[in-house]
Design brief:
Elements lengths: L2 H19 L20 H7 L2 H9 L17 E5 L5 E4 L3 E2 L7 E2 L7 E6 L6 E6 L5 E6 L9 E4 L4 E5 L1
Antiparallel strand pairs: 1-2, 1-9, 3-4, 4-8, 5-6, 6-7, 7-8
Length: about 160
């Protein structure tokens, strides 16, 4: 065996041994599912939501930037969860973040919850509806005053009710 092949073989074997020793060869235990006020089976969610809404709200997908009609919604009113109709954001907190998604600097009281999200290899904070658990988007620390936060939401995860 050539020196290069020995090096690759021994290196791969060593990494494999370390992973097994650390327990990476066994799946992580399943986490208990969070219980929400509004809950449906997966099949029920698929009947309630459009395929695109289902992808975002239930499978943590995202919409194409600049594609949401709510991006250009400037009337006074409230933005609600498309999954359960919970009021989430006042139009007074909406602003143009130039990102292509409806953005807000503050949610309504007791409207959203957050969780850690490292699904694409970077640390982000996921925002979801506190009543049905639907994925809404992410929050970033680069927003305007007074909060300095940018709640970057998928427009398909929201509906709008004019005042």
């Amino acid at each position: 065996m050539s020196n290069r092949r020995k090096f690759l073989f021994l290196g791969t074997a060593s990494v494999g041994a370390i992973l097994v020793a650390r327990g990476f060869d066994t799946p992580a235990p399943a986490q208990a599912a969070e219980v929400f006020e509004v809950s449906h089976t997966d099949a029920e969610w698929q009947k309630i939501l459009t395929p695109a809404q289902y992808n975002i709200l239930r499978q943590q997908g995202t919409e194409t930037p600049f594609s949401s009609p709510l991006l250009n919604e400037h009337r006074a009113g409230v933005f609600n969860c498309a999954g359960c109709a919970l009021p989430l954001y006042s139009s007074t907190t909406k602003y143009d973040s130039h990102t292509g998604w409806p953005s807000f600097y503050k949610p309504l009281a007791n409207a959203v919850a957050t969780s850690d999200d490292n699904s694409i290899g970077m640390d982000r904070t996921e925002v979801h509806c506190r009543r049905c658990g639907g994925h809404l988007g992410h929050v970033f620390p680069d927003g305007p005053p007074p909060t300095g936060l940018r709640y970057c939401m998928d427009g398909l995860a929201l509906t709008f009710t004019p005042a």
